[in-house]
Amino acid sequence: MRTGSVMAMAAGGAALAGAIRARRAKARVVRDFNAWSGSTEAWPSVDGIPARCPAYVNRVELFGSFHPADRAAVEGALPSDAVRPVRLPDGRAIMFVGGLHYRDITSAAFSGAMTLPYGEVMIAAMVSRGDAPPLLPLVAGMLPLPAAWRAGMFQLALPVTQRWTRDSAWAMGLPKFVADLDFEERADAREVRVVEGGRSILRLRVPTGGGVRLAHAPMLTFAASEGTLFVVESPVLAYQHVGLGGRGVELELGDHPVAQRARDLGLSPDAVGTLSWVAGRVILPDRRAIGPARPFPAYRGEDRWFGRYTIRYPGTEPVDQYAYLTRPGIERAILRGGGQLLPDYASLDGELDGAFEPPGATRRLDDTSRDLRPAARVRT
After folding, report:
1. Is residue 248 within 8 Å of 290, Cβ to Cβ?
2. What is residue 296's DSSP assignment?
3. Cross-strand pairs, 106
4. Which of 304, 312, 321, 334 is nearest to 118 (CA)?
5. Which of 222, 237, 183 lies closest to 34 in space, CA to CA?
6. pLDDT number for residue 368
7. Which of 175, 198, 213, 241 is the most exposed place for a label (fewest CB within 10 A)?
8. Which residues, including other chains, have CB under 8 Å from residue 52's CB and lie 6 or more apart?
C-alpha cells in the first residue's frame, strides 16, 4: 500500500474519531441540561401568578452587540467592587445591548399553563468577579481559566413588554420596566426599537451570519437588591452565531432618561462583536447572594400591564404578539395554573382594546370580508 494511501486512511480515521467525540460531547451537554436540578425556592405570588424557581424558557431568541464604554463611568455605576468591568486591550469597558424573545415559559409552581411571552432589551455592563486580563472573561468558559474570570452581565436597564415579568424581576433586584418594543426579523439582520412614554430609548440593528455553534456555558446575571449583590447562574442550551467586529451594527440612542444614562457611561455606537441565538432554551434558577452592595438607582418607568410587542417579518406588516390576548383568556390561564385573580385585572380591558396598536398592526383573523383593515386585537 502506498504511503499516501496510508496517510489518507489515517487522516480519515482521525476525522471520524473526532466527529464521534464531538457527537458524544454534544449528547452529554444536552443530557446534562435536561437533567439539571437546582433550587426550587418558592416566592410570593407575582400579580396573582404563583412564583417558584426555576422557571423554564423553552424557546428563547437573542441578538445583540458588544460596545466599548468608559471604564471609570461603568465602574462608578456598579454597586459593588466585587464585580469589575470586562476590558478591551485599550482599557475601555465592554457593554452589551441586545434584544430577546421569551416564549413557552413554564414553571413547576404554575402547573398546566404557561406565563405570557414577552420581549426584552438588555443594556448591561460585561463584568467578572474580580479583575481579569483584557477580553479573557469572554472566553473563560471555554478555557482552563479561573471560574471567577467568567464574564457575566450586570443589568443596568431592562425594558420589557409586560408587567408580570417586571414585577417578578423587581423581587430579584433586576431593573425591568414596561416599554414598547418593535422588532424586525430578517435572514440577514435583526432589529429592535424601544420607546417609553413617546420617547425613544434606542434602536439596534445587528447583522446575522457566520458559523453556528452550540452554546452551553451558563449565563451569569448580576443584580443588587436591599444591600446585597446577587448572581443568577442560568443553564443555557442554544445554537448561536458569534461575529467579531462591528460591521453592519447600528446603535442609536434616543432622548429618554435611560438613553441618556447609557450615553453618560460613554457607550459607543461602534461595536466590537455580535451575538445571535437562532434557537435556545434557558433555565432561570434562584439567585444566590455573593456579598454586600451599595444602592443601585434603577429606572422604574410607567405602571401599566403591557407595552407594545410587535415583530415585522419579511413580506408582512408588524405582527402584534399580544393580538390573541383577552382578559377572560388571561384569567382562565391564571386560574388553571393555580393562581388568583386580582381586582385590578379589570384595567386589562382598556389595554387589550387596541390602546397601543401600532400603524399597520396585525390584521384581523376573524374578518371574512375582503376588506382586511388593520385591527389590534382578535376578540373572543
Report:
1. no
2. -
3. 56
4. 321
5. 237
6. 32
7. 198
8. 40, 41, 42, 43, 107, 108, 109, 110
**pLDDT tens digits, 194-219:** 999 999 999 999 999 878 889 888 89
Report how far residue 101's alpha carbon sits from residue 62's, in angstroms, rounded to the nearest whole number.
7
Give the pLDDT score at 45. 84
What is the pLDDT at residue 353? Answer: 67
3-state class (DSSP) for residue 312: strand
Give the tens place of pLDDT for each residue, 98-129. 999 999 999 877 778 788 999 999 999 999 99
Per-position DSSP letters for 174-202, written without gaps between them: --EEE-EEEEEE-SSEEEEEEEETTEEEE
Q: Give me the residue label for grid cell 370580508.
A: 369
The three-state (H, E, C) secondary structure of 216-269, written as one string: CCCEEEEEEECCEEEEEEECEEEEEEEEECCCCCEEEECCCHHHHHHHHCCCCC
59/281 Cα distance (integer angstroms): 5
Smallest CA-to-CA distance from 181 within 124, 262, 120 is with: 120
**Strands 93-107 and 84-85, bridge-based pairing:** unpaired
What values do phi and psi take at 167, rounded to 5? -70, -35
C-alpha pair distances (Å), 44 with each of 81, 129, 168: 31, 30, 9
Look at the alpha carbons of 42, 44, 46, 50 in this order and tell me if their dihedral is positive or negative. Answer: positive
Cα–Cα–Cα angle for 331, 332, 335, rounded to 5 degrees = 85
**At 14, is the secondary structure helix, strand, or coil?**
helix
Question: Would you call 31 helix, strand, or coil by DSSP?
Answer: helix
* Cis before 54? omega within 30: yes
The pTM of this model reads 0.86
d(C-alpha 181, C-alpha 115), whole Å: 19
Beta-bridged to residue 310, according to DSSP, are 182, 320
| Phi, psi (degrees; rounded to nearest 5) at 275 | -145, 140
Q: Which H or E run includes 342?
A: none
Q: What is the pLDDT of residue 27?
A: 67
Ranges under pLDDT 70 in the chain: 1-27, 29-30, 40, 141-146, 353-380
Give the CB-side neighbour count of residue 378, counting CA atoms within 13 A: 14
Contact call for residues 125 and 153 (beta carbons, < 8 A): yes
Q: Is the dihedral of CA 287, 290, 292, 296 positive or negative?
A: negative
Q: Alpha carbon 132 to chain centroid distance?
A: 25
